[in-house]
Amino acid sequence: FGWHPHLHTLLFTRHPLSKAQIDVLLQFLYGRWSDAVVAAGYRPPHSEHGLVISRGESAGDYISKICHQGLGHQGLAAEISQAGSKKGRLASRTVPQIIDDWGDYRRESDRLLLLEWLTGMRGARHLTWSKGFRTQYLPAEQPAQDSDPSTAEFVCQFTGQQTDFLIQYDPTLRWRIPEAAKKHGRPGVMAELASFNFDCQNVPARSPPQAAA
């Protein structure tokens, strides 16, 4: 029971590894990982299910499946950036499913789970490259088209206290408010806040920042 944090790691070697070499690598990685988990105050991970090494063909099949199901690169991007969107196994639930249940049933246990998840995932990265690896094999990333703040539409701003209140009241507002702003601008945000009688007068609007001369 509880959360299921895990990593999918692609390890590139100069030459294919034999089964004996994979077994040695598995024991080495498991020992390092198990020691770190125990040092953090938890029980050792399961020796058979805690760490699995598969050959690269499996990764290729997995990526091909995602791209086929998700319209090419959009599917792969969604798999990486929306890791919480898949359905949980057996009777477990993913974060979006917990959000839906909180919206439908307002169970306090679901609210506490969402707050715990938000706290734990704050600042977490969904994709990490080894130093220099991306630069060596992939082209440079293109800058975002809307990176110029002078061209952005400023909708509204919240103080830290207001943000804490909103998330404590309903953790789903962390997603619902940005979605309302994206679809309907400031009126959409105000409508979302008015749905639970939030004092909209305390959400000031202001002009977008001026570009530096």
Automatic annotation (TrEMBL):
This is Replication protein. It comes from marine sediment metagenome.
